[in-house]
Each structure stands twice: as C-alpha cells, then as structure tokens.
Amino acid sequence: MKKRIEELDFLKCVFIILMIVFHLVYIGDKYPYAKQLVYTFHMPAFLLISGYLVSISKKPLVFFRTMGWIFVPYAVMESGYMVMSSILPVRDGVDELSLTVWADKLFLHPLGPYWYLHTLMLCSTTYYLLDRVGRRWLKNTLSFSIVLALCLAVESTVLHISSLPHVLYFWGGIMLRRCNLSFTAFFKTSWWGILPFIWLSANEQNLNCFTWGGMAMVYLAISMGLTVYPFLSGKLRDACLYIGRNTFVILVFSPIFTVITKSFVSFFNFDTSGMCFLIVSVGFVLAGSFLIAWCMDRCKVSRFFWGKERMLQ
Fold first, then answer.
1. Are residues 286 and 275 in the same domain?
2. Dihedral angle over CA of 167, 169, 173, 178, nearest 10
3. Which residues are in the Acyltransferase domain (predicted)?
4. Of 32, 56, 166, 254, which sits 20 to 30 A from 125 (CA to CA)?
5. 24 phi/psi in degrees, rounded to 5
6. Statement to judge: residues 170 and 148 lie in one domain
C-alpha cells in the first residue's frame, strides 16, 4: 500500500489530538467523563488503523529492520520516561529504578503512552511470523484469523505482555486487510451516526471498548470522522493531513511537552472552562514535537534515531 489513504491520515490526526488533549492532566481531571468517553474509542480506532496498514509482504531482513527502527525511539523514550517518572510525580510511575525494573518496563510492561509502540511491534511481529510459518498449513483466511487471534490472546492473558482489547482491535484491522475489505467502505459514512453515538455515550457501562456498546462507539467514531473529512478543504485539510502523516513523531515526543504544560495552568485561571489552556497546550505540544523532529532532520540525526534521513513527511 504505497499510496497514502488520506482519510486514514485524517482519522489519525483526530485521534492523536484527542490523545494529547486527555494526556493533559488538568483537562483529564476537569472533564473525567469526557476523558472516559474518548478513551473508549480513540486508541482502539488507532489500533484498527495500524492493523489495517501493517505490511507483511516485506522480506524478513526488511521487516525486522522496520521493527528495529520503531524499537530505537521506543527504547530511548521509554527509558527516559522511566527516569522521569522516578523523579517527578507521574501517575503509575516507578518508585525505584533498577536494571530489572528497566528490562521489565521496556520489554514487557511499558509505562506511559509508549505502550502503543510496544503493542504495535508485538502484534506486527506475531502476524508476520505466523504468516511465514503457517503459509503452508493456514491457507484458509478463517483458520489463519482464528490462530492469529489465539496467539495474540495467549500473549495477553497467559504471558501478560499486552492488553487483550488492544491486541484484538489490532487483529480486527489485520482481518479487514486480509479479507480485502476497503477500510473506508467498511465504515459507512453517515451524519445519523451521531445519534446512536450520543445514546451509547449516555450510559457509562458502554464506556469500555471491550463491551458491545464500546465496540459500536469505536465503529461510529470512525464513521463520523470519515463523514466529516470530505467537507475539509484548503489549509485546514492540509494541516490535518500533515499531522496525520506524522503521528509517530507526535506520539514519541508529546509526553515531554504534556509534562511542561502543567506549568501553564496558573496563567489560565481566568478561564474556568479550561478551553484556552487546552488550545494553547495542544498547539504547544504539536509545535514542540515537530520542532524536535525538524531539528533532528536538519542536523542529520534522524537516520540514527528513526532510520530515515528525513522523518517529517
């Protein structure tokens, strides 16, 4: 899939911005129900898209090189996040650093937002290896999908190195691609989707992506995003697609800036809604993430960190 699907870049833009918004502690604490609502669909949708886009047509050396260049920024930033969490008051941080703790968090139980990269590498590698090993005896799509789901479930429920809902959403994206289903056709566009979405979100029991209601909300959120996309034009559309093309950069560097935004809160005491803080902080996080990546590109460091001469697309 060499040609980018712009609709998917737009969806990635929407979901990465929602991730930033509710990684702002002030906003998450101020709007806990909204946070729970967004957490129901934004990362499951991201995982669906990731599963749909993962490529297993590469030769082993090329595939594992790709995984390696995901692991490098993951390892650097996860290690930095561990150190930061041991010093600063970060939720779910580590109390004391040691080689054992570092290895456990890096390879098995990552901290912070970097769990997504861990899940991406784990699921992609499992999918690739199963396709290579089972190519002769798992020719049927149904049998392959069942075995892959079982493998991912074992990694989650037996080995406890991933989240079962997360890996199954990734699996869902793989199956869409494996069955030759168009992502944008499978998720039907309709403005009417807002009505069942509101109805489902009114019941707190549905705010769990592993329930039937939660799965419906994931579907409807993606569908509504695809419904909005054709109405974008000009610079707004270009900006959204640029953000969507560079979500890897944002995911990697955004935690640095979301922590810094805590110092902004006192400057926005005049706005009890928190919306001014939200807008400024999201802009700050995006600009800071892009600035670091741009500097790395200009200083020829990207090839050592990302495995590319130029990361920003």
1. yes
2. 60
3. 6-294
4. 254
5. -80, 110
6. yes
Nearest to 10 by CA among 224, 271, 311, 276: 224
| 13 domain residue, yes or no | yes
Let me know if residue 196 belongs to a domain. no
The verdict on residue 198 lying in a domain is: no
Query: Which one, of 303, 261, 312, 298, lies nearest residue 282 by Cα?
Result: 261
Question: Based on the domain organization, do 259 and 171 belong to the same domain?
Answer: no
Would residue 177 count as lying in a domain? yes
Using the structure block, give the residue that is written with the tokens 């729970």. Answer: 36
Shared domain check, 181 and 65: yes
CA–CA dist 224, 232 (Å, integer): 13
Residue type, 63: F
Are residues 64 and 152 both part of a single domain? yes
* Length of the chain, in residues: 313
d(CA 313, CA 12) in angstroms, rounded, equals: 14
Helix, strand, coil share of the chain (percent; to 5): 75, 0, 25
Count of structural domains within the chain: 2
pTM for this one?
A: 0.94
Closest CA to 167 of 197, 204, 123, 203: 123
* Contacting residues for 190 by C-beta, under 8 A, at least 6 apart: 223, 227
Provide the domain limits for residue 296: 1-53+203-313
Same domain, 280 and 223: yes
Q: Burial-class residue 309 by CB neighbours within 10 Å (0-12, 13-18, 19+).
A: exposed
